[in-house]
Amino acid sequence: MARRGNGRRSRRDKPRVLLPALVGCAVALAAAVVEFVQAHPGWAAAVAALLAAGLAGGLVLRVRLIEARRARFLAANARLEQVDRLTGGQFEQLVAERLRADGFRQVTQRGGSGDLGVDIVAVAPGRGRYAIQCKRYTRKVGAPEVRNFLGALANTFAGHTGVLVTSGHLTRQARTEAAAARQPLIVVERDGLADWLLGRAALLPPSRRPW
User: Fold this and answer.
1) Does the keyword Hydrolase apply (predicted)?
2) pLDDT in tens, 8-39
3) Is the separation of the CB atoms in 133 and 150 below 8 Å?
4) Domain 80-208 sits in CATH 3.30.230.10
């Protein structure tokens, strides 16, 4: 039993022995790098340039991979039969990708608890800021929901153009509320959504499109 106890202590002591050795190796490596840079400034500059180019290339590749993944998601879910199978969060992502494809910038999803009635914010270059609410509904969007969105546009999101996007339809009273809105408001219902997602229709009129 005594020998077993000594074995345990020796295993516990290993990290204490290894740590100074690792620190020493790191210091020695840093000193060697400094010495090399001082002795061979030309080589050091070339290595630094290669590392910078590699980093930049890696970042470009990452951006392109993200863009390709977004494009695949948009293409795979652009038809209404796919839209109807999405969750609310996936529908918000789909709308965000369509906005990016249309040239909007700074597209940010903010849906969830505490979103203050707006799921996405975006900027159309030269055309201002947009606040988008997404309703992936099988039922109709009612007047109270339109009023709540207009309230957000009048307060927290004052100065934004509102966009209400739904996979369903608005009730007659909801359409009346939207038509009478004092804030700029664009409504995209099911039929218009199908054309917009497939790129057959623009969200903004030609004179106000972001490109």
Assistant:
1) yes
2) 555 555 556 667 777 778 777 777 777 777 77
3) no
4) no
pLDDT digits (tens, 9 = 90+) for 137-163: 989 999 999 999 999 999 999 999 999
97-140 pLDDT per residue, tens: 999 999 999 999 986 766 788 999 999 988 899 999 999 998 99
What is the side-by-side order of every strand in the sheet holding 185-188? 105-109, 120-124, 128-135, 161-166, 185-188
Report in angstroms the alpha-carbon separations of 146 from 92, 139, 208: 17, 14, 23
Extended beta strands in the chain, E state? 105-109, 120-124, 128-135, 161-166, 185-188
Q: Identity (one letter) of the amino acid at 71?
A: A
Is the pTM here over 0.85, yes or no?
no
